[in-house]
Amino acid sequence: MTARFVFGVDLDGVVADYTAGFAEFVATRRGIEAASLPYERSYDFREWGLEPGEFEQYHGAAVIEERFLASLPAIAGAAEALWRLSDAGVWIRVITHRLYVNWGHAEAVADTVAWLDSEGIPYRDICFLGNKPEVEADCYVDDAPHNIAALRAGGNDVIVFDQPYNRDADEPRAHNWREVEQLVMDRFTQWRGTAGVQPQLPGIDAGKDRLAERRSASGAVPPATGDA
Known about the structure:
With 228 residues, the protein is an alpha/beta fold. The chain folds into 2 domains: 6-15 and 73-218, HAD superfamily/HAD-like (Rossmann fold), CATH 3.40.50.1000; 18-70, no CATH class. The chain is 37% helix and 11% strand. The chain has 7 helices and 6 strands; from the N terminus they run βαααβαββαββαα. Strand 4 (139-142), helix 5 and strand 5 form a beta-alpha-beta unit. It is globular, with a radius of gyration of 18 Å. The two termini are 24 Å apart.
């Protein structure tokens, strides 16, 4: 048995609602309503009428000019589920390919960390890289079809976070963060044994507000980790 059970967590499309945030940005640039850009879209945004290379242009402007990575909507239940997993002893490792825009790395890193803090997302460490099979984790959750395929080709255990563009990927699949939590806890319990798992007490849910409560009590900013 290894010293810790590491859960590799993707951000965009899993914890952060990239589609909703990007739709607002694209709609503003085009002078249209965000609702006119379908949420049920392919991975390449073809339903939005983006020409080849246009996604990169829009994404780069969103990251560098608008700093939208600092204000993306969070996917419902993510923070609370991750806190419960962290409290039980799961090591949360954020893994994201946000160093995608040339000359925008400083903005991407700073805004990612600020967003995790503001949304109360617990994590023990964070990796910025595109080749996710190079990261050691016992279990992953991801939405991108190419990441899911690459991770599984390397023999990794991957939970598919359900999105319109990954419906062809095989199970296991989670449609929300309650389902992610249950799938990860099943694996963690098997890894550690039921006697070693320490879930929160019934009726007590510290939730993501714990980070803000610790700040106000101490007057200082605590580290953005899963430590409770």
